[in-house]
Amino acid sequence: MNSLKPLAAAVALAVASFACSAASNPGDRIYTADQNTNTVSVVDPNSNTLLGQIKLGNQRPDLLSALYKGEINVHGLGFAPDHRTLVAVANGSNSLTFIDTATNKIKGITYVGRSPHEAFFTRDGREVWATVRGENYLSVIDARTFKEKRRIETAPGPGMVLFTPDGGRAFVVSSFTPEVAVVDTHSYKIVKRIPVVSPFSPFLQFTPDGKEVWMGHKDVGKVTRIDVKTMRVASVIDTGFITNHFGFAKTARGTLAYVAVGGENVVKVYSTDGEAKLLNTIATGALPHGVWPSDDSTRMYVGLENGDAVQVIDTGSDKVIATVPIGQAPQALVYVSNAVPSGPGTDNLQPLANATPANIPLVPASGEAKGFVVARSFGVVDALEVFLYKLKPGTVYSVFVGEQTAPVASFKTNPVGMANGTAIGAIREVARLRSEANPTASRIVVVEGEGPMDTAKVVLRSPM
C-alpha cells in the first residue's frame, strides 16, 4: 500500500499541472463585443493577454456627430463553422460586420432592420441568421455575398438563434414575447412555438450532447431547459438577479453549466444530469455577462460588462486564474479555436485605450430597491452609467453626485420598475470617483421625482 503513495502523488501533481496549463493551441482566440468603445477585443488564451482591438467605430460620445460613419453599440458575436470568419453585430447602426479571423480585416458589412441582437452561421456555413430584435423577423444572409436573401417572420423581438447539431432546426428565443420559436431550416417555416416563463431571453445554448437547449431569462433570474427532441420545457431553474449568458463544460464531475449572474457578481455552477443542482458559486468582477468555454472544457471565459475585462475560470478547480483588461462594456464573448492558422495574428489590431472603470454599489434607504453605477472615462468627458431595479413602475428618479444641487440625470422606470441610462459630460465628481482608491467615499443618491434634492425621497445611496 505504501509503495503506491509516490505514484498517487505523481498522478495528483500531473492532474494539477494539467489544470493550470494553457487549454488551447497558438491559433485559438477569444473575442468580446465591446459596446461602449465599439471594438472587438482579441485575447490570446495561451497567455491570457490582450493582443489588441479591432476598431469598428468610435468610442462614445464621438458617435453623436451627424457625420459619424462607424458602427454603434457593438453587441453580438458569432463565427463560421470553419472558424475563419467572425460576425459582429452592432445594434445601434443595424449592422453585421464580417471579419477575417486570420488578418482581423473587415470582409464586408451588411445592414439589416432595426436593432439586431445576435447572428450565427448555419451548420453548413452557407447562411448567417440574424435576429432583428427591434422588429419581428430573422434576416437570412448569404455568407458568401453578405446580402440578405430572405426574412423569417417571428413574434416581436427575436433575441438569438442557434442551430441543432444536425442543422435541421433553429431555436429562436425572444426579448419581448414569452416563447421559443423552432424553425425548420429547409422550409424556413416555424414548426413549433414553445411557451416559456418570461418574455425576455437574450441568450440560449445547446448542451454538448445536443439533447437540451438552455435559455436565460434576464428579467426574472431564471434558466429554462428545453428537451430538443420533444420540444417541450423540461424544467426551470431559479438562478439569480440579472442572469446573463452561460456555457457548458465536460469535467470529471460530469457536464456542468456555468451561469453568469450579473446582479450578484458571480458565476454559478450547476449539474446538468437530471435535476440541475447548484454545485458552486464563483465570485467574479463587476457584472459578468458573456460566457464561452474553451473547446477542451478546461477553461470558462467570462466577460465583465462593468469591469471591462475577461476573467478565466479553471473548470477543474472552479477558481478565477486570470483577469485580462479589454474594451469598455463587453457584451457577447466567443471562444474560436484555430482562428489564426499561422503567424501571430496581430495584424490590423489597435492597442487598448480605455481606463479601468469604478463600480459603485447602491444600497436602499428603505424597501427592496436595488442599483449600482459605473463611472467611466470617455476621454475629454466622463460618464456615469446608472442601473436601477425594483422601484415604482413608470416613475421618474433623479441621480445626484457629491454636493451638486442639480441632478446629473433623471430616468423613468419601465412597467416592472427598472431603468438604466448614461449621463455624459464634464462631471468633475465622476472624474474624482475614478481616481480615488476608495470610490465609494463620495456620495451618490437616487431620489424619487424631479427637481432639487429632497432627502425625504431618497431611495438609494452609495455606502457611507
Can you describe this structure?
- The protein has 464 residues and is mainly β.
- The chain has two domains: 22-336, YVTN repeat-like/Quinoprotein amine dehydrogenase (Methylamine Dehydrogenase, Chain H, 7 Propeller), CATH 2.130.10.10; 358-461, Superoxide dismutase, copper/zinc binding domain (Immunoglobulin-like, Sandwich), CATH 2.60.40.200.
- The chain is 5% helix and 48% strand.
- It is built from two helices and 36 strands.
- The strands form eight sheets. It has an eight-stranded antiparallel sheet, covered by helices on one side. Strands 3-2-1-28 form a four-stranded antiparallel sheet, with no helix packed on it. It has a four-stranded antiparallel sheet with strand order 4-5-6-7, with no helix packed on it.
- Strand 10 (137-142) and strand 11 form a beta hairpin.
- The longest helix has 17 residues, at 4-20.
- Mean pLDDT is 90; it is low at 1-23.
How would you summarize the topology of this molecule?
Elements: H1 4-20, E1 29-34, E2 39-44, E3 49-55, E4 74-79, E5 85-90, E6 95-100, E7 106-111, E8 116-121, E9 127-132, E10 137-142, E11 148-153, E12 158-163, E13 169-174, E14 179-184, E15 189-195, E16 203-206, E17 212-217, E18 222-227, E19 232-238, E20 243-251, E21 254-261, E22 266-271, E23 278-283, E24 288-293, E25 299-304, E26 309-314, E27 319-325, E28 330-336, E29 358-364, E30 370-377, E31 382-389, E32 396-401, E33 409-412, E34 419-425, H2 428-435, E35 444-448, E36 458-461
Antiparallel strand pairs: 1-2, 1-28, 2-3, 4-5, 5-6, 6-7, 8-9, 9-10, 10-11, 12-13, 13-14, 14-15, 16-17, 17-18, 18-19, 20-21, 21-22, 22-23, 24-25, 25-26, 26-27, 29-30, 29-36, 30-31, 31-34, 32-33, 32-35, 35-36
